Amino acid sequence: MTIRIVDILVIIILSLLTYGFLNKSSLIDKRKNIIAVIVVMALCSFLILWKTDRGPMQSIYVSMFYLLGLISVVDFFKKEIYLELFIAAVPLIILNIILFIDNWDLKKLIFTMGVILFFIIIGFLFRNSIGFGDILLFILLILAFEFQTAIFLILLSFMLSGMYGLILFSARKVTKGYEIPLTPFLLTAYMIFIIL
């Protein structure tokens, strides 16, 4: 395992951007809570660097973690997903596709577009169950990772959120119409994927 200077600089820059975003958006009220979130994200980033020995791919995994972390915090507190955070992911996705995804042939491209269309249709059919931001996040994952990895992350996040919902419902903490933010479970699934 090697942690490069570039990876440490990426973590520092992403931590500063995260601090600025959380401080400006006033999602978390006290500065010490914002710093606690950033420290946890930085420690998880070092765990990602420790568990992955993939060279330049490490920085992409860490950047994706910070992006999912920010989206999760917003979704948890506001039950919304900001489009600006998706726009920040575009350069990351382009870099990942150009450098690291092998064998992009026409069949795979058509299949990926079909899956993206499927998620958009699901979003319209189940408008009250799955938010459009969640659908955009699924599309982001399919474009940012290999297809099997993205599907694994999506399915695992649904399983984790379903188990959490069942626990809350059986403990009578929530009623039937309670909305559970999905992105914190997607972040958890991402960390499980990295650790395993």
Describe the structure.
The chain is mainly α. It contains 8 helices and no strands. The longest helix is centred in the C-terminal third of the chain and has 24 residues, at 147-170. It is globular, with a radius of gyration of 17 Å. The mean pLDDT is 78.
Strand-helix topology:
Layout: H1 5-25, H2 31-51, H3 57-78, H4 83-100, H5 106-125, H6 132-144, H7 147-170, H8 183-195
Helix pairs in contact: 1-2, 1-3, 2-3, 3-4, 3-8, 4-6, 5-6, 6-7, 7-8
**Kindly, what is the distance between the CA atoms of the first and last residues, rounded to a whole number of angstroms?**
15 Å
**Secondary-structure element sequence?**
HHHHHHHH
Largest sheet: none
User: Please, how many domains?
Assistant: 1
User: Which percent bin holds the helix content?
Assistant: over 70%
Shape: globular
User: How many β-strand runs?
Assistant: 0
Helix-strand makeup class: mainly alpha
| Radius of gyration (Å) | 17 Å
Amount of beta strand = under 5%
Mean residue pLDDT = 78
Question: Nutshell version of this structure?
Answer:
By secondary structure, this protein is an all-alpha fold. 78% of the residues lie in helices and 0% in strands.
